[in-house]
Design brief:
Layout (H helix, E strand, L loop, with lengths): L3 E5 L2 E2 L6 H19 L4 E8 L3 H10 L3 H18 L6 E4 L3 H16 L3 E11 L4 E3 L16 E11 L5 H10 L4 E2 L1 H10 L7 E2 L1 E3 L8 E2 L2 E6 L1 H6 L1 H4 L16 E5 L3 H15 L8 E4 L2 E2 L16 H8 L1 H11 L6 E2 L2 H31 L11 H22 L3 H22 L1 H4 L4 H25 L4 H10 L45
Parallel strand pairs: 1-3, 1-13, 2-3, 3-4, 8-14, 13-14, 15-16
Antiparallel strand pairs: 5-6, 5-7, 7-9, 10-12, 11-12
Helix pairs in contact: 2-3, 10-11, 11-14, 12-14, 12-16, 13-14, 13-16, 14-16, 16-17
Length: 518
């Protein structure tokens, strides 16, 4: 059976994980968790891009073997995923035999079909981007920062007939207007395609680059790193085997806007078409995280965010919540310590954390740890039930549209409404009254607990560990199925679990991230 197959970009093995890496993995993980809550079987792939000139140069500078460097980097990125609660199904590395075999098979197939030719070439080469560029790529007369040093190269190489398929790609994009999300990114690609496409140089001579996959038809060359890397999406799911049909076409590639065109929106669909495979169904393109004032984050500017430090200091769920709540998918967003702390204190510690703490405390104090059933007594409870069921529907709808910022705001609205309900009902005063007040107390706490249970179920894609801990304190296991989630479908006779503070208050002064133990 065809599953929902989602991938992220594979990270480049030339540095440590940064905020963009962490966000992309968290976003993909939240999408997959939400799909599974709708009963959809999923396969989630991420991985590491390990070949290329920059990896070779870094290894040489450090006096290391390139494979040793890649092995260490892979463990670092896998560690980040573990700490961020990113539950991928497969982790592909481009130095693995399963990948190299498919890359060589694809190259051989394209060569036999006449889609690859060798010729002498003189052109401008971006060392940082590891690709040939043209004068038209200049912006305001200057090379973009991402290109780094641009030099002139003269050499013989192998080329893939990319330009041959330009008309096909334009026609495909025009007929599939939802191929790229958000839609304006697809318009940008079509604008890019108004200029003639040059054929793609898919080789590098071993005289200047040894660290790569050797061409099957010429041992003096290795494969261009981008041509190699893109093939991971099919090599990891058994291209050439019977099981491949269970995964391809991929349902979604989650990528950053900087690698949309030409890599994922031009090279990749054309490569697939040339070997007789359909393109992926969708590209989900997210924006960049910016520092204060809208500046791009970078190590050299000293404004880069270390996601692991935040996960260690405040917990991975708080970090996951912030990045999903703060960024609208497809747009750029700002990250600052002040914004993080403000969101943590208002949404998590004050709203969600206090609701859990006060409900569990009152049920322990007034109900002997028994959780009352959510009975409906008056208009306040009816309104709360209506809001809870509306929240379920709205969160499901927003998650299906990858609007996690909107989905989390829906849940927080329910949590805030529940806090206001408790403040109006004043259960601490009802506890001091007679038999009638005691009935109202049970009704009040039961309604509050039910809203919190539903909120925890809805928070699971964004905050999986915190959601499980909330449900444990409410004496119930997660349903794992949003299709059956409704008011009062929790088992009766529940008792509160061990009380714990999920989001401790932040006592730090100033704007500095607290020191994290080594």
């Amino acid at each position: 059976m065809k599953c929902f197959y989602l991938t992220t970009a594979i990270d480049y093995a030339n540095g440590s994980p940064h905020l963009g890496h962490a966000y992309e993995k968290i976003l993909a993980d939240a999408i997959v968790r939400a799909k599974r809550l709708e009963g959809v079987p999923c396969h989630f792939l991420t991985g590491l891009d390990e070949h290329g000139q920059k990896v070779q140069e870094t290894a040489e500078r450090l006096g290391q073997d390139p494979q040793f460097l890649c092995d260490a980097t892979a463990e670092e990125f896998k560690g980040m995923c573990g700490h961020m609660e990113v539950a991928y199904d497969d982790y592909v590395r481009t130095t693995e035999l399963r990948h190299k075999k498919v890359v060589r098979n694809i190259l051989q197939l394209l060569s036999e079909k006449g889609e690859i030719y060798r010729t002498a070439y003189c052109g401008l080469y971006s060392v940082r981007a590891e690709r040939f560029v043209q004068e038209k790529d200049r912006v305001g007369g200057q090379w973009p920062e991402d290109f780094g040093e641009v030099v002139e190269l003269r050499e013989e190489n192998y080329f893939f007939r990319l330009g041959k398929y330009q008309d096909w790609l334009v026609d495909f994009l025009q007929k599939n207007s939802d191929f790229i999300y958000p839609a304006y990114r697809q318009k940008q690609v079509l604008e890019f395609l108004k200029e003639p496409l040059n054929d793609l140089c898919i080789s590098r001579p071993k005289s200047r680059l040894r660290w790569g996959i050797e061409l099957p038809f010429d041992g003096d060359y290795v494969t261009y790193v981008w041509f190699d890397a893109l093939i991971n999406y099919i090599s990891a799911v058994g291209y050439g085997t019977e099981s491949f049909v269970n995964f391809w076409p991929a349902d979604m590639h989650v990528i950053g806007k900087d690698i949309l065109a030409p890599a994922h929106a031009v090279y990749w669909p054309i490569m697939l078409h040339a070997v007789g495979l359909p393109p992926p169904r969708h590209l989900l393109v997210h924006g960049w995280w910016l520092a204060r004032g809208g500046a791009k984050m970078s190590k050299s500017e000293g404004n880069a965010v270390r996601p692991m430090d935040y996960a260690a200091a405040y917990g991975p769920d708080a970090f996951r919540y912030f990045v999903l709540r703060e960024m609208n998918v497809g747009q750029d967003s700002n990250f600052s310590h002040e914004l993080f702390v403000a969101r943590y204190r208002s949404d998590l510690a004050n709203d969600l954390g206090n609701l859990l703490s006060r409900l569990v405390s009152m049920m322990n104090r007034y109900c002997g740890g028994n959780i009352p059933p959510p009975e409906i007594q008056g208009d306040s409870e009816k309104d709360l039930k209506i809001l809870a069921e509306r929240s379920i529907a709205n969160v499901r709808k927003r998650c299906s549209a990858y609007d996690f910022a909107g989905a989390l705001e829906e849940v927080l609205s329910l949590i805030r409404a529940t806090n206001r309900y408790l403040e109006r009902r004043e259960p601490w005063k009802l506890a001091k009254g007679g038999s009638e007040e005691q009935i109202f107390l049970q009704i009040c706490l039961g309604a509050g607990a039910e809203c919190l249970r539903i909120s925890a179920e809805l928070l699971f894609p964004a905050m999986p560990a915190a959601a499980e801990r909330i449900l444990a304190q409410l004496g119930v296991e997660r349903t794992g199925d949003w299709r059956t989630l409704a008011w009062d479908n929790a088992p009766a006779g529940r008792k509160t679990g061990e009380r714990a503070i999920l989001f401790p208050p932040i006592e730090e002064e100033g704007n500095a991230l607290p020191a994290v133990p080594a």
